[in-house]
User: What shape does this take?
Amino acid sequence: MPTNLNPENIKALALDLDGTVLRPGAVLSERTIRALRSCQERGVRIIIATGRAIEAVEKFRLPLGAEGPMVYFNGAIVASMPGTKILHTCLLEPGAVDYCIDLSRELGVYYHVFFPGTAEHPGQILVAEKEGSERDMYYNHTGLLAEIGDLKTFLKGPGLKRAVKSMFLAEPEVQDTIRPRLEERFGKSIYIARTYRNFLEIMNSRVSKGQGLRIALEHQGLTSQEVLAFGDEENDLPMFETAGFSAAPANAKDTVKAAADFVLASNAEDGVAAFLEELFSLPLKG
Assistant: This one.
């Protein structure tokens, strides 16, 4: 545990959502809202750093009152909120998407793709090739429902030749079959991350929460040593490398806990809120 963490020097908190700040079932507790708002009242900025799409984060960002650069799609997009001013994008080349479409069809695995928005369709466009329980599960988890269409046809559409990110939704054992094939075909030219039990995400190799966080910090004039990052999954490790300090809840992957400076109570126990209450001596609700 680092002995040089002075709470007075922390100017920003970089927060993963699912499995970290959110309770099981993607619930943002009143205790967490209260703690994070109290931090902001002390001048500490909130930087949400998530694999979620912009639209899927608003229901959490708004109660927190967080403003400024936020990291979405694991860093593929950095946008200043409110207003969704895009500060940075890093898109996936069509060859990788095309191969994943073939792989999903071969294995019969659900796969969907986020395309950049257009003038006619602002925001990101989410497309899958079939309906099913995975599509419904993603909708229940994020509030985003994929439209149905032929992905190869969609990939050739005007202005949509590259993707923000793509995802296989499958059980971990199926992901363990998919991932080696992607690594054999593309090596390090793509970024692969398991971000939730059933989510296997594929993005541009330059995408990471670490890179997204660096961009967000630059726009706020902050240094790495002024940031404390929280996360639970492998996609949070690059963010830990960027931030001066890092913390993981007890429910995090073992590799993530091993990399963290602090291990907190689980997300089910509002571990982030409890840690911040102690670190910043926040007032508890009486």
